[in-house]
Amino acid sequence: MVTNLGRLLPGVLCVGMMLTGCGESSTTSKSSSNRVATPSGRPPSAAINVMVPGLLPGYILPTRYTCDGEDISPPVRWTSVPDDTAELVVFIANFQPVHDRLFFDWAVAGLGPKTHGLAAGRLPVDAVVGRNSFGRKSYSICPPSGTRYSYAVRVIALPHAIAVHHGFDALTLYREAEQITKAVGFAGVNYTRP
Fold first, then answer.
1. In the predicted model, what is the mean pLDDT of residues 52-68?
2. Alpha-carbon distance 120 to 61, whole Å?
3. pTM of the predicted model, to two decimals?
4. Where are the domains positioned within the chain?
5. Residue 61 near residue 82, CB atoms below 8 Å
6. What's the farthest any 2 CA atoms get from each other in the chain?
7. The pLDDT of residue 16
8. What phi-psi label fits residue 2: left (phi over 0), alpha (psi between -120 and 50 degrees) or beta?
9. How far apart are the C-alpha atoms of 72 and 155, rounded to whole Å?
10. How far is it, in rounded angstroms, from Cα 41 to Cα 26?
11. How many helices (H) and strands (E) does the chain have?
12. Is residue 183 pLDDT above 50, yes or no?
């Protein structure tokens, strides 16, 4: 199932990126209001608008938010969360699978339904951080030198909370969240490492 999911997400995320207008020159990532099918095959009933403020033209992530800078999480904002949401989860994942698996750069759960975003490098006290694909309980965007990578910032609204602990497995939570979500949102960012 991991392999199938690893093949599914990049295609789903690429559709989200195409609909957000990735590659246009802007200081703020456009949000995606597309309705794409979840792994269960059913489309979410609502879409969350996701924005990443302060991007450089071409949806380029400033160096500050990578391992070439401070490697702190970028600011993320969202709107249009359904009223019946119990919890929000946020993922940042590579568009390109690594060894045929999803590669998560960040996974955060436990966000309250009234939360409208995350400040750069900061999380609410109740946030629960998962283990990224680097094996760390933190955020990090650090592609190989000389490569350009694209990343999906995905916000998922859950109808009920999912019990997780610090260091949870990002793929396991992602899979479970995608099965029960009623609303999702995307924003895309790019980074070319010198």
1. 97
2. 12
3. 0.80
4. 2-192
5. no
6. 44
7. 40
8. alpha
9. 18
10. 33
11. 2, 9
12. yes
Domain 2-192 - what CATH class?
A: alpha beta
Instruction: Give per-residue pLDDT as tens, 67-116.
Output: 999 999 999 999 999 999 999 999 999 988 777 889 999 999 999 999 99
C-beta of residue 43 within 8 angstroms of C-beta of residue 178: no
Give backbone dihedrals phi and psi of 98, rounded to 5 degrees, phi first. Answer: -110, 120
- 4-31 pLDDT tens trace: 444 344 444 443 433 333 333 223 334 4
Beta strand pairing call for 46-47 and 183-192:
parallel
- Look up residue 18 and give its amino acid: M
Q: Decide if 151 contacts 191 (C-beta within 8 A).
A: yes
Spatial distance between the Cα atoms of 84 and 159, rounded to a whole number of angstroms: 6
What letter represents residue 42's amino acid? Answer: R
Tell me the pairing of strands 104-111 and 76-79. Answer: unpaired
Give the three-class secondary structure for 157: strand
Q: In the numeric block, which tokens belong to residue 74?
A: 């970028």
d(CA 93, CA 58): 18
